[in-house]
Model the fold of this input.
Amino acid sequence: MSWTTANRNAAVDVVFAKAPILPVIVIDTLEQAVPLARALVKGGLPVLEVTLRTPVALEAMRRIANEVEGAVLGAGTVLTPADLEAAAAAGCSFAISPGATPALYHAADTSPIAWLPAVATASEVMQGLAHGHQRFKFFPAVSSGGIPALKGFAGPFPQVRFCPTGGIDAKTAPDFLAQPNVGTVGGSWMLPKDAVASGDWGKIEALAREAAALRR
Done:
């Protein structure tokens, strides 16, 4: 893929537009992967960020990519160029990091999938802009200034849009989504640990449906 700022923006904006909430998913067992993903998609949250935090994450991604119709699959917690390459090989269409490094910016230039770096400060936004990126994860959103920070970024960086993630819940998500420079919001409140552990996919589907209706 030959990435330009314009086609990077277009690729990420397509993802942003599919749902107001991006579920941040930790999969502990392979048996959870497909039914959990199906519950989220059925509830109206088709864009799925499966984090690379467990040993089964990559195989879970492969199963979701092959078996869950309508899922738009992404990898989260991408820390290295090797992670980015593995995410693409597992069937992901995008990848997200909790920060950014020169090595990842370089690898993203030739990656076959779109990559969303994370920023927490104006200096980090400027570094991303210098690498041709205008779409970022804002992380950790709440502890990095939340909505006031996003409003502050809007002045000097009118071309930038964000996916704020970290510390956001069902109550606060609509206020984040109301910001003009926010494309979607990441969170995990629709994935309570007890429901995932017990396989209560109906509960997760219901919570996903509530989350999908949060955009004002």
